[in-house]
Design brief:
- The chain contains six helices and eleven strands.
- The termini are far apart.
- The protein has 268 residues and is α/β, with parallel strands linked by helices.
- The protein is 22% helix and 20% strand.
- It has a four-stranded parallel sheet with strand order 3-2-1-7, with helices on one face. A four-stranded mixed sheet has the order 8-9-10-11, covered by helices on one side. The protein has a three-stranded antiparallel sheet with strand order 4-5-6, with no helix packed on it.
- The chain folds into two domains: 125 residues, FAD/NAD(P)-binding domain (3-Layer(bba) Sandwich); 85 residues, no CATH class.
Length: 268
Amino acid sequence: MADRRFRVVVVGAGVAGLFMAETLKRARIDFTVYEKAGEVGGTWRDNTFPGLFVDVLSRQYEFPFQPNYGWSRKYAPAAEIWAYIKKVARDRGLTKFIRFNEEIVAARFTGGCWHIKTAQGDTDVADFFICATGFLHKPLFPDITGRESFAGPSFHSARWDHSVPYAGKRWGVIGSGASGVQITEALAWAGCDVTQFIRRAQWVHIRENPHSTWRERLRLRLPFAYRREQRRGNSSTKATGGASSPGHSARQWSASTNPFSITSRIPN
């Protein structure tokens, strides 16, 4: 044991896990990343619900060691974010440090080091154990009486059922976080009858999301242009969400004082 090299184990190959992997690789530290799925990406791999866009500026949501000059929009769609993450992992040679389809089920600190066990029964030993699993990939269902007996399709946003058609359905969305707002907006744009159930009224405003032009992408490659745009993005006000499209049936219900009190309604 005394001859064992200093070693780090990272759990999760999402954005945080890959950033840590690149940092450890540059420092020439012995490490392994364990990923329970067969691909990198974390939450951007697992979440595929309609209307999913990054909710901060695209240029603020990238690895500092690999800028992306080609974002298609101010707030990039999920598929583009995931493609970028996969490209970074392969361009930087990080996949060779990742053990895919290996879920960590136990980690115990004893004898001055971490003893790790996978679902397959394999073991590993490390001096540092870094948890980069995130929390948006695992469904967390509210405790609602009757949820299990609901006769229609029912699923969590992190496990979106793409076999369910939009048309001809009355949709109910529970929650007013970023996912709830984006899903409600997307369904409203699709012409669905959608009601959003929330605990309390949420601040929502129209978020402009223009496409980038080839001139803008080219300009970012000029000397100091990219850094200048980064500073400009840092000083700008961050958008907080989207809004449903007027003309479609979208309602918002609040349970702050009464579980069935309407707080606002998008006009039909």
